[in-house]
Fold this protein.
Amino acid sequence: MTATAITSAVPLTSAARTARRTRFLQWVGVHALAIAAALFFVLPFVFIFLTALMSDQQALTRNLWPDSWHWENLRTVWETPGFLTWWKNTLMYAVLGTALTLVSSIPVAYALARFSFRGRNVVLMLVIATMMLPPQVVIVPMYLFWAKQLHLSGTLWPLIIPMAFTDAFSVFLLRQFLLTIPKDYVDAAKVDGCGDFTALLRIILPMAKPAIAAVALFQFFYCWNDYFGPQIYASENPAAWTLSYGLESFKGAHHTNWNLTMAATLLVMAPVIVLFFFAQKAFIEGVTLTGVKG
Amino acid sequence: MTLRQKHRRETLRNLAFLSPWLIGVSVFFLYPLVSTVYFSFMKYDGFTPPTWNGLKNWQYVFTDYPFFWPALRNTLWLVVVMVTLRVLFGLGIGMLITKVKTGAGLFRTAFYLPYLAPPVAATMAFAFLLNPGTGPVNNILGSIGLPQPGWFNDPNWSKPALTMLALWGIGDLMVIFMASLLDVPQEQYEAASLDGAGAWQRFRFVTLPNISPIVLFAVVTGVIQTMQYYTQPLVAGKVASGVIGSSGQQFEPGYPEKSTLTLPQLVYHLGFQRFDTGGASVIALVLFVLAMVFTGFLMRSMSERSTA
């Protein structure tokens, strides 16, 4: 098209018309494709929602649309014994875990981004290595440690306490962001007589808000979604179950009731979706930061 | 203050800042890693004191444990098919979204949201959607006259079903590709167009070279994620086999016919269901070696990017 514009021997109006038509067809094509793709991503949510509101009998049929809307299904799920406990446990795990991760990871990330010392690259490599390691690699000795020596199995503490000693992914993400803050800010603060810790607290933290928000959200969702951890440490004690772990057993208790299972699934997904709408930017920024600015 | 005092003060400061990590990595990584190596040579059920077992655990896992090789084969399948499709699909969606002009925010949200769905919830939802009898997907396939696969109940279809679930959660890759596509210098496209390059040639000679480090990053992190693939295949197998909710004691992992087995599941099966700490440690070390090999690739790809 650009080529036509340069060697334009034909009248300009006709060339412009062709160009406009091509642009229009492209617009239609791109949007049709986007709608088709969006259906693949959205339809599962729609079917979950529709089934969650069906009657018990109808959920066993092949109907896609509810004959009548059973909003009380959500209530039934909510009042299932244990469900509220799982919510509380999950919230405790996620809130405490996130708070501890932030407090412990920020100074480490700052040191890795700003201080130069011997072995810094080794530390960084170890951080990336632990970030990439499947949790199953160390789970057997870790379980024995928590269960036999500290007698804390059947609780969520073996999952929460380690977060007071940093989380590799959070350290990495924060460091990536802190690298982008110019050194001059801290140098200026030091000239004014600030110590390293005060500089971090007063100058860097306010500037690093977007990254801190991203880390907090990722860590919150990691805890909210975690299945393996609660399976290992909490499975023996239903009072310590989390939503992810309890959801599976919920399906067991309501073996044939896909409607109640999907209603429970909705209730587990809901907080994640709501939080996303409040914090879209932080998410996108976090993903970009770990993926693109290596 | 002498230079030496300054140096010592800096060292103390560094140690103070790093101390949470130093404690964490020692207690929750190095110590258990060494223990895993130790246990891999011991006979230990978690109750009676461990005794020396030589290479017997290793021998058992590689020759007599019926789940090891199927799990490794499945991992290979997932790496080749799932990772490839995820990268291609993520790139495709990323390119599409950079072209969308109307309602871009809405589309972006639609593509991103499934990535956030809790894995257990997403897997349960897919087990319902792909339920061979009454699930909406087979329902729709049937009504337009297409074959209706058994999905999670058919060993030939369980991995494609897991792949669909993985493609549904592609939001993170979409964002990463989108950001890197927007970083490609616009002048290069204009120059290519002036040289008469068509759409494919512009993609081949401008887009691809610019984003190839990101593609490499996506492939390597994809492989590492596949090494850790645990919740989705386990929950899918449990729901499809109908043993869900009980303690899982009688669950034969990998339902149907070991087709959803992955290596991390074996650590749980041996260590926590069969109380074979030694065997579980061997699997854990195999996982460790595989993960570290690919992490090595990842670090190389990252350092290439930062020097480029």
